[in-house]
Amino acid sequence: MKNPAIIGQSIPRLDAPSKVTGKAIYTDDMKLPGMLYGKLLRSPLAHARIKRIDVSKAKALPGVKDVIVGADTPGVKYGNWRLVPQSQDELPLAVDKVRFVGDEVAAVCALDPETAEKALGLIEVEYEELPAILSVEEATAEGAGLIHQESKGNVSLVRKIDYGDLDQMFAKADYVREDTFRVHPVQHAYMEPCSSLAQTEEGNRVTLWTSTQTPYIVQCLLASTLGLPENNVRVMKVQIGGGFGGKMELRPWEFCAAFMSLRTGRPVKFTLTRHDELAYGRRRHPMTIYSKVGFKKDGMLLAKDFQVMLDGGAYNAMGPTATFLCGTFGNMLYNYPAYRYFGRHVYTNKPPASAMRGFGAPQAAFAAETQMNMAAEELGIDPIDIRLMNAMQTGDVIPDVATISSCGFKESLEEVRRISGWDQKRKNKTPGKGLGIGCFSFISGGVFNWFNTKYNFSAAEVKVFEDGTAQLAVMACDIGQGPDTVLRQILAAELGIPIHKIRLISMDTACTPKADLGTWGSRVTLMNGNAIIEAAGKIKAMLRPVMFSELDLNQIHDLAFEDERVFVRANPKKGMDFAECVYKALRGREGEPLTARGYYTPRNKGLVSPAFSFGAQVAEVAVDQDTGQIQVEKMYTAHDCGVAINKMSVEGQLEGAIQMGLGYALMEDLVMDDQGRTLNTTFLDYKMPAAEDMPPGESVEIETYEPEGPFGAKEAGEGLAIPTAPAISHAVFEAVGYRCMETPITPEKVLRALGKIK
Amino acid sequence: MKNPAIIGQSIPRLDAPSKVTGKAIYTDDMKLPGMLYGKLLRSPLAHARIKRIDVSKAKALPGVKDVIVGADTPGVKYGNWRLVPQSQDELPLAVDKVRFVGDEVAAVCALDPETAEKALGLIEVEYEELPAILSVEEATAEGAGLIHQESKGNVSLVRKIDYGDLDQMFAKADYVREDTFRVHPVQHAYMEPCSSLAQTEEGNRVTLWTSTQTPYIVQCLLASTLGLPENNVRVMKVQIGGGFGGKMELRPWEFCAAFMSLRTGRPVKFTLTRHDELAYGRRRHPMTIYSKVGFKKDGMLLAKDFQVMLDGGAYNAMGPTATFLCGTFGNMLYNYPAYRYFGRHVYTNKPPASAMRGFGAPQAAFAAETQMNMAAEELGIDPIDIRLMNAMQTGDVIPDVATISSCGFKESLEEVRRISGWDQKRKNKTPGKGLGIGCFSFISGGVFNWFNTKYNFSAAEVKVFEDGTAQLAVMACDIGQGPDTVLRQILAAELGIPIHKIRLISMDTACTPKADLGTWGSRVTLMNGNAIIEAAGKIKAMLRPVMFSELDLNQIHDLAFEDERVFVRANPKKGMDFAECVYKALRGREGEPLTARGYYTPRNKGLVSPAFSFGAQVAEVAVDQDTGQIQVEKMYTAHDCGVAINKMSVEGQLEGAIQMGLGYALMEDLVMDDQGRTLNTTFLDYKMPAAEDMPPGESVEIETYEPEGPFGAKEAGEGLAIPTAPAISHAVFEAVGYRCMETPITPEKVLRALGKIK
Tell me, what's the ipTM? Predict the structure, then answer.
């Protein structure tokens, strides 16, 4: 299978120049005539009943145009899991109770932001404080208060997986171990804090420019909370300054902008601050993970019992998916004859956790990969060897859940062993230095239809013009991960035209084809790519008759589309310019433009994903035994993303993933006091790795060909964020003997483990 | 043929509330981050060679970001008549010569408008002045200088029509008369002066928000002048503050905004002033019209020789169409056994004339209708009787030119006679008062493909959703004439859903279906309406299978779509909600949305238009014989627009037309000095009728059913602007005996005719 030359090229992202020169327009850059500035009043308490709200003074402040509280709204609950309506537990503004510090209570819009801010201070809210439940242990304790009265307990959702005979397998095992891991919350820390601007039209329609990864989800949920038909809400393209899963739900400021715009007839904009984001924003789930594994003494895996409590915070958000996927990633890398997963999503009085790059997998992998390294250690087997023995491979099946149609995991393990100098370095250990390994598998989009969309999962519309150019319309979102370039590469490959001749129209729920579910779960390249290939195929079918009749071709001939020409594959001289061919086809269509749509929905691909990526990573670290400081000296990565459509983009994803993994492992943490208030709410005290903290890296792409993916491609975005933390943790153990069971791996914990502090 | 109830209703325009409350956003309201303000340097001379331009001082002014002259541009000539490339005679910025006072010479963009204005003053241009040719007589005189060196003479275009044996018919005539009329220039005087804002994307794409009636024409011509593929230019919806034909071409500021945006990488906006518009803007063609007619003594028409010189100003603009249509409107109302038309479009050193409501017809009709009244007078026949005798009727054919498939002209004449009290008032004349008649016919869009589009003349895309709503996408422009409402009525009638459930997406060349030619020639209702009906029919075809299988219907049944239900026409109880039916159909389409496209291009409809409207108007005036002041006391109108889709809209068009006709007849004029400089460039001295000047009116719609039109509809926009001036002129003659042969009809001319002044 030879792909067109443009597949696999390193093409700089087409949006890069406008972003690095500051010309790209984000939502907060937009100003519309008559626009009002919105601000949110948030709860100062983690858990309380609202007894009274008085907004009269705020309303009376000159310049204030509207003030709303929960009682003013239609009171429709929302949440991404439309398939399970009882999981939809959020209101745009609190009505009866507040459930975390930051829960939205009222909104103001005014002629300028200062007046809006001042008005917030004039709103009087009387609360009856309730005990704050700040841990999953408290939340699930006997007699714990209910955070949601409608819920039977504080466990909002349970997910179980169970196959094989667990008891029998554990009985057969030579070696069984049980461990409990705890992982901490971190935040997406996208560069662009959320911003939303709504404008109304004809009194009952809303156009929303908003910082989102999921315009269609926002359209639908905003419509339902406003009590309008979906068609009355239009979500429009803006530049998005990063998302990482943090911008994939309807959020209160989106509702408030739209609702207040309908009430005032004026455009209304809300923009969050960094403080808002860090103090009240979505974050990666903290989890408590109990894992019991059983092996034969040669290292062969027999069984795993994986029990996870996700600290979901005050609302479900995307927690159900994390709960679901966590169980899938507990067993995805290796073949387990028996596996049981019991995941519980638990309400606490904290800001809701939700989707974040990896979606449950970084946590599951931290536990599973660490435990694998512990077992290898105890069994006296090389950690890479024990993995090779149990590794998933192409054709492996998890019944009803997944079929592994391409898998370069073993090759990744071998490659990372080679490039890291694994064997030699382990033989000749340097004190205070160590190599550690972590592995991953990840999805290429989801199959489970939690949003209950009635439309295909992705769609594309392709138009070609007589000037040899094309237009590609997709609802997919580029949130910095590069599909605006990659999707054009796919179309360019199909039509044989250069990418700069393709205009991309994206992310406009009224004008781009219904109904892409958005950017999450690394779905865009595979799902939109497949839709584009289908649409391009229809365009080519429109051009075939022209070629066959103009060139008098025999039916056995096939056509090729390359270098802006259409020609007989067996006789490249016989052909014509692509533009000319389109012109002739257009002339034969009674003035009807050449337009085609393509769609993609995974079918018969199990429950989880149409395709899975794999990879392994080795971290090389040095630990200063006096300070406990951990220096990651090098990261070695080998990974299988199928065919990389744009090598530079994949490298960018890898670098970004290492940066995030590094932060997750060593530096980032949201610190909360005993009242549920987040204490580090600026980038001065929420510490992320910066450019100078990045270790050098070496990486190898294991090229497999994923049959379900466009040109053999699959995931290359989130998966790479998974192995870094367990690899670093393992390397720290190898360096100084400290095994981290509770992230992050701080110098303090190292020193304590070394007995240097108490 | 019974139309659905929504057809013919008076529905207030859906865009009205936002416009009357000041919330509608026009181009000049828009501000983009980093936006630059553009200004144009114009020629102070009517005719000159450019010897030298020095922009160095302007470029050096702090805050100036770019300065361009013609030599900096690709130098591609443009013009709307793409079918005749040599007619494309304009450049965005003058290169060798300037040809009128106001011809664009250079453009500046700067951080603020004041700096841009200041920079204009720093540009040095050295001109070599040439003799200014300011009349068609001078321009066509032997030895006249050439305004365009590339043109053989100053006559840029000739149009001839010739049928029947003219000499034989004149020989048979009992009564022949020859007259020469002169009509003056007037301006559209739309409320919104032109404004254009361009933004670039990826270095080689431009998005343009611009005050235009013809986004597709602007897209194509802008692309060709920039040297880009059409697909790299996107023209986007804004509110348009009136057009009347004055915003249907590519204009220099559109080019300059786009070109300078590409050069600077920043958004660039140009907005004209009222002075710019009045001094340099497009206007209605002044014409010199020679007309010779022959009658039998009973009033039967035999022949007409119609020779017209159009004063086109410095460039062709839409002059070729006016030249073309002027000949068509010279004979459209009456049956002429022989007719000859000789139209010449003449260059002069004046601002270019172009399309303006009526497109050549108000001028032709002023001459033709006045002459008809003169003949009736001399033959002693009632002016209405002589018209009835010769009037066009349904089924009449002008060979190869037009087929009159519906015609309510005779009925209009009878009605206007009745409502005006014509017979009695003419019998009992009051000194100083008079009744006058003028008639019209007009097109419902053009057939002749002067823009040489490869696409259908109109297109529509309809989507229906499971919430019972629909989306209608069209490239058609609402410039105040109401199609945003009327087109939704047409779709609502087809689908049986209310108009407020239809979202309209219009005027976006990237997202609305290719390739509407825009708003001109009263084409929108008929052409887009037909496309919508076709698209809706396809949607209904998608819903039929659901109904027939769900309800187990016999094939002889037919379905009705009314009141948000789909049901068996013969048994209305048997059916289901429209929304439910869409939902079921969607479920059966594997996630593919219900989307359909419809198209319309007139075929086999002659050369001119697919349908013709007709009407008659009687003006009742009082003339003060001491002051010469003319008071129009009442206007009586009867007209045939086929089926009026929205009666209120038609009334609005009629009122607006009377206002424009009144201004044309009595008040408006562009006064020029002998250097070609327009002297009245504010609304204080360019006098238009205001609300208080409007005469009361009475009107009757003669309902015919136009078989080519949607639900029987045809033109109701421009035609009504035609008869007012000749009707008033005739009434003035009846009142005081002054017959105007040279418009406007001023008090001065009346007094001179009465011998009261010299």
Answer: 0.93
